[in-house]
């Protein structure tokens, strides 16, 4: 739900948390990115970092250069000038991520957790149960049936939060409680309504369903696709998951190891929000008709 | 010159004032946990205030020098030895070529800063030499130092021995330590009673305390205002739709044990945060040992800004003493 007005909260004396709404929703997230872009374009010198999130964003600022109240007022003014509604087009790269579902690495990781917590249902089975999917094959089909929107980056270097753009591809899952102490680099997980790709071996809480050998973060900038940035994704990119078999999975792994792997990135595309929202509405109506 | 690491200590890392501005990629600011101590150590040996030092936690390293250099150790109290001969903390001294710097057992605080004239001269990453092992950034090849490492040091002139920061300008946590907090962020999720209890309770530092965050135990579990959880937030009332975490923000997973996020913290997540420790008190957290008692003190924005100004004035006084 989009709030009627922005809500401002101090995050200490050098950060402001600005909430636009609540819920994991494409429309709110798109407005978050538009507002963040407008604030960035305003070039307010005291701002040190702008961090878009799903339904909110954070501004890190220098309180010696601008007061909390003045910065809130500036952002409110920018929001008012931006106009409401979700419309327009923006450049949006389409990045294809190869994925081996039910791969050995995440399977071993799930088994290790279940040694300590034997009552935990294995992740893919739990996700199937909670989403009315008959078996793991159906989960693979649903998960790879949609493009995903890069709604937010962060938490860990290069970690992305992905929202499915096809309404019926929505999959929900609870997070681990307690969290895992480790997750394989490249694991693909679902938490809340989001998919993520673990950029490195880190603790985590998302339900694991597969693994990609293609890196999404390269701190050493070794691979050619990381020359400009340590992180593969930018907010507003779209991601497609391409199921691969073991042979291709191993082949990609080998090419990553020797440094010759290139990501499949299509970067000439324009994403029309109006067309998308019309289409999503039709899709949702068609699905209701079926049900 | 190089510092030959004979023993690395527990988790000794290269730190400067960090790399602000990359939180949107998930890369934290990082840098020294106790910034005042790092600045003072650099000033004592004639370095720029933001030069890279070694930050050692709980246990000091053992380092052999291949050339003479001025050295100063600030932060927590840990006996300092040069070839077995004691030296004063917060005071410059010379280590001659071939001599070895080592440390006794920690007496107070948690972290020491080792400044060497010329500053640590490893390759910077995103504008900083600070070690961020999770992202393999900065530090010594992206990691903490290890035995056998030869850490490069820049060109620097020797300064006179015995330059010192007067005792009244040094800072460490009291007991109980007091951490001032600005409420905000998702404070509105807590009941009034629970919010009051957070400030009335005495907390103790848990063993899970590192550069990412400090966990606290001993207070009452939090109570949340009832609501229908928004889509995607998860069933637990301590969960939110993923949001950003600011520096110093206090997250409470499961509503039981608050964690103050520090220099190497993640940039966001799905746990509610009730506010943040003010920037002036972040250094103190870096000097807290496990089991220390802590009180959180509620302050308003003007008090936070005054504390920030006082901190700046303190650094200015130290500068005047030493420059």
From TrEMBL, chain A:
Origin superkingdom: Bacteria
Pfam families reported in the protein's UniProt record: CT_C_D
Keyword Nucleotide-binding among UniProt keywords: yes
Keyword Heme: no
Protein name: Carboxyltransferase domain-containing protein
InterPro entries the record matches: CT_C_D, Cyclophilin-like_dom_sf, PxpB
Keywords for the protein's UniProt record, in alphabetical order: ATP-binding, Hydrolase, Nucleotide-binding
Residue ranges annotated for the Carboxyltransferase domain, each copy included: 6-233
Automatic annotation (TrEMBL), chain B:
InterPro entries in the cross-refs: CT_A_B, Cyclophilin-like_dom_sf, PxpC
Lineage: superkingdom: Bacteria
Keywords for this protein: ATP-binding, Hydrolase, Nucleotide-binding
Residues in Carboxyltransferase domain copies: 24-314
Pfam families assigned to the protein according to its UniProt record, in alphabetical order: CT_A_B (PF02626)
Alphabetical list of NCBIfam families matching this protein: urea_amlyse_rel (TIGR00724)
UniProt-listed PANTHER family: 5-OXOPROLINASE SUBUNIT C
Full protein name: Biotin-dependent carboxyltransferase family protein
Organism lineage string: Bacteria, Pseudomonadati, Pseudomonadota, Alphaproteobacteria, Rhodobacterales
């Amino acid at each position: 739900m989009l709030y009627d007005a922005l809500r401002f909260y101090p995050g200490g004396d050098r950060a402001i948390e600005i909430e636009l709404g609540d819920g994991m929703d494409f429309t709110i997230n798109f407005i978050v990115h538009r507002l963040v872009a407008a604030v960035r374009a305003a070039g307010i010198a005291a701002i040190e970092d702008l961090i878009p999130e799903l339904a909110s964003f954070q501004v890190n600022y220098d309180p010696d250069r601008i007061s909390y109240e003045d910065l809130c007022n500036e952002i409110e003014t920018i929001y008012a000038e931006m106009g409401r509604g979700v419309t327009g087009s923006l450049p949006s790269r389409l990045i294809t991520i190869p994925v081996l579902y039910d791969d050995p690495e995440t399977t071993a990781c799930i088994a290790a957790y279940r040694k300590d917590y034997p009552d935990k249902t294995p992740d893919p089975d739990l996700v199937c149960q909670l989403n009315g999917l008959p078996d793991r094959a159906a989960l693979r089909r649903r998960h790879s049936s949609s493009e995903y929107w890069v709604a937010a980056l962060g938490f860990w270097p290069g970690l992305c939060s992905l929202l499915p753009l096809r309404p019926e591809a929505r999959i929900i899952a609870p997070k681990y409680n307690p969290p895992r102490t480790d997750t394989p680099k490249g694991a693909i997980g679902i938490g809340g309504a989001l998919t993520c790709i673990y950029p490195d071996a880190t603790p985590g809480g998302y339900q694991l369903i597969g693994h990609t050998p293609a890196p999404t973060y390269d701190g050493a900038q070794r691979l050619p696709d990381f020359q400009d940035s340590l992180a593969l994704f930018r907010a507003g990119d779209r991601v497609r998951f391409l199921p691969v078999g073991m042979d291709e999975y191993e082949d990609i792994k080998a090419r990553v190891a020797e440094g010759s792997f290139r990501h499949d990135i299509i970067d000439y595309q324009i994403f029309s929000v109006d067309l998308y929202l019309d289409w999503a509405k039709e899709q949702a109506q068609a699905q209701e008709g079926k049900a | 010159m190089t510092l030959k690491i004979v023993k690395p200590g527990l988790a000794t890392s290269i730190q400067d004032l960090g790399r602000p501005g990359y939180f949107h990629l998930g890369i934290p600011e990082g840098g020294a946990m106790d910034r005042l101590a790092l600045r003072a150590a650099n000033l004592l040996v004639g370095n720029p205030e933001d030069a890279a030092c070694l930050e050692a936690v709980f246990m000091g390293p053992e380092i052999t020098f291949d050339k003479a250099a001025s050295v100063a150790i600030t932060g927590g109290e840990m006996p300092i030895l040069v070839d077995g001969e004691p030296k004063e903390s917060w005071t410059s001294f010379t280590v001659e070529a071939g001599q070895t710097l080592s440390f006794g057992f920690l007496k107070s605080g948690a972290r020491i800063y080792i400044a060497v004239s010329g500053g640590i001269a490893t390759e910077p990453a995103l504008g900083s030499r600070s070690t961020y092992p999770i992202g393999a950034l900065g530090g010594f090849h992206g990691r903490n130092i290890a035995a056998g490492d030869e850490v490069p040091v820049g060109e620097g002139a020797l300064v006179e021995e015995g330059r010192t920061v007067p005792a009244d300008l040094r800072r460490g946590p009291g007991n109980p330590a007091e951490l001032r907090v600005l409420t905000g962020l998702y404070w509105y999720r807590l009941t009034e009673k629970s919010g009051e209890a957070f400030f009335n309770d005495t907390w103790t530092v848990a063993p899970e305390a590192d550069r990412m965050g400090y966990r606290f135990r001993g207070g009452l579990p939090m109570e949340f205002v009832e609501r229908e959880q928004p889509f995607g937030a998860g069933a637990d009332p301590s969960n939110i739709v993923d949001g950003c975490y600011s520096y110093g923000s206090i997250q409470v997973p499961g509503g039981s044990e608050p964690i103050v996020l520090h220099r190497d913290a993640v940039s966001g997540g799905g746990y509610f945060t009730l506010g943040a420790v003010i920037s002036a008190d972040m250094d103190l957290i870096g000097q807290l040992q496990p089991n220390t008692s802590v009180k959180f003190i509620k302050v308003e924005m003007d008090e936070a800004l005054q504390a920030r100004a006082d901190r700046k004035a303190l650094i200015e006084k130290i500068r005047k003493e030493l420059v």
